[in-house]
Structure formats: structure tokens, C-alpha cells
Amino acid sequence: MSTRAVVRAESWPVRGEFRIARGARRAVEVVVVELHQDGMVGRGECMPYARYGESIDSVRYQIETAWPKIEIEGPDRRLRLQRMKPGAARNALDCALWDLDAKLRAEPVWSLLRFPSPPGVIRTMRTVSVAAPDEMHEAAARLAGNAVLKVKVDGGTDLERIAAVHEAAPRAQLVVDANESWSASQLERWLEELPRYGVTVLEQPLAAGSDQALTGLQSPLHLCADESFHHRKSFCDIEGCYDMVNVKLDKAGGLTEALRCVEEARRRGLALMVGCMVSTSLAIEPALLLAGSADFVDLDGSLLLEADREGARHNAEAGMLVPSPTIWGGS
């Protein structure tokens, strides 16, 4: 029987405001794919990202034009799917196809992947958005019970911001995420100062394409590639520049490729962060399958929303992610 694809856009309000170097969000716009077959429905979600040339309309178009060609492949449709350009559209389709396969076979995705057990409860780092130092101090104080905080910065008064977060949450390990906003001179001035504020990871300080400036840099902390790292072909581009990669399903183009990225990162001896876009739990649930392999888990995207999908079981107060097979991946 044929598989019918239904594609729609949704808007989910953010709690307060989420701000990074590239701007602020008060709502997140996502694309949801439903694959209907034999009375079963497989779902996937992605968040089109303008930084990567994506929009709601472009992603919907990619999905709606690609699926008819993929669907006719029958048993080989996952192979055909991998020929799509990596990105948000392929991610939504790939995750929807995994979910559908799990339901048609009455076997959860973790079992289809031959994992020894389902994902358990996972603690995620929490995010402090870019703001004035006193506002970030206040935000960090509310999250001070978390073991790891991600600190968003933008190339402005960043050392003051980081110091303010550290003062409010002195026991927390800090991951500073510049989202490409630092200059080489800022990196040189600030890098050696960061460990004194509890910083253990610096994520994407320079613009993607400027990574060679990091070659041979003696860093006192992990340097993590995010915007410079998308899928397995990216490993060659970042070699010698970073010792950690941030694997996200929307960048990789789905769970299938993200799992391969995790395997390759381990083979190369790189540390691993598993990240996400701001999204609902429909996008977070597949990423939980990667979290058990990660050194750092940054999957609080759904915890930043005013409300989440029906059936979500996460505990935002404690920063705990509790898998929900009713949302995605169950049989």
C-alpha cells in the first residue's frame, strides 16, 4: 500500500524570549511531516533555519516534491531518502519514516536500531540567553541547580556576562556558545580567561569558514564545532581545528546520518555534544537516542517553550528529559 505524506507548519510560543548572537525568538516555527500507511502514522519535526538558507516554504517544498519520488522506491526508500540534501527537510522525513517503521513492525525504534535498551532519563544542560550581565545573572540564578549551563554570547561584553553567570551558579560547568560572533582578536584575549569562570567548552567562536585560524591553537578547554559541522563530510573541513563536534539532527539531515556522525566522531577520538534547535518534543525524542553516547547533552529546546506536545514527560524544573514513546519512536 502507498504511503501518503502530510506536511504542515506550526508555531509554538517561546517562554519569554530566546536570544542568541543572530537575534531573538518569541516563537518557533516548525514543519511537521506525517506519513500515513495501513492505518499507522509516523511523525517527524524539523526547524527550518535561515542561517542555512532554509525557510518554512523552502522546507515544505523540498518535502512535498521529494516524497513522491522516495515513496515509489518501496523497501529501498530510506536509501533514496539519503540522496536528498542534508538539512531540515530530510530530517523531518527520516524521523517520520523511522516512526512509521516502528509502528508498522510493532517494534520501537531503539530496537530496530539494535540498541541494547531504550533511552533512559537524561539530564540536559540548560541555556542562558544573551542579555545584559545583570539579566544573565538573574537567569543563571534560577538555573543554578543544573550541573551544566550553556551561556549564549554575541561578541559584546561577553567576559562580563560569563562572569555574571559564574557568580550566580558557581558550581555549574559552563559551555560558552558564541554562534560565530567573536573575532580572532577577541578569541585571543578571552580564551585563557575562560577557565577561571568555570568554562570547559567554547562552541563556535569564529565564523564558519574561518576555522583554520584555530589550527594549532593551544586551548585550555574544548573547542566545539557547531555551524562548521553538519554531517560526515564536515569532518574533513574541521580536522585539526576542533576537538568536539555538536551533532544536531536538523543539520545532519536525520537520525540515520546523525548516528553515523556519532560513530565517526568516536572513531576520530573527538568529544561529542548532542544538540538541537528550539523545537517541540517531537524533534527532541529522536535525539535522545544519541544522548547516551554524548559527553554533553544540549537538548533543552522543548523546555524553552510555553507548552509542549501532548504526552511530553520532561521535567523542566530539574532539567530532566524523560522519553515518551507516545510522541515518537514507540511501537
Report on this structure.
This protein is of the alpha/beta class and 331 residues long. The chain is 31% helix and 23% strand. The chain has helices at 56-71, 77-81, 88-105, 109-112, 133-142, 158-168, 184-190, 234-238, 249-252, 255-267, 281-291, and strands at 4-20, 23-37, 40-46, 122-123, 126-128, 148-152, 173-177, 199-203, 222-225, 244-247, 271-274, 296-297, 320-321. Strand 6 (148-152), helix 6 (158-168) and strand 7 (173-177) form a beta-alpha-beta unit. The longest helix has 18 residues, at 88-105.
Layout of helices and strands, plus pairs?
Elements: E1 4-20, E2 23-37, E3 40-46, H1 56-71, H2 77-81, H3 88-105, H4 109-112, E4 122-123, E5 126-128, H5 133-142, E6 148-152, H6 158-168, E7 173-177, H7 184-190, E8 199-203, E9 222-225, H8 234-238, E10 244-247, H9 249-252, H10 255-267, E11 271-274, H11 281-291, E12 296-297, E13 320-321
Parallel strand pairs: 5-6, 6-7, 7-8, 8-9, 9-10, 10-11, 11-12
Antiparallel strand pairs: 1-2, 2-3, 4-13
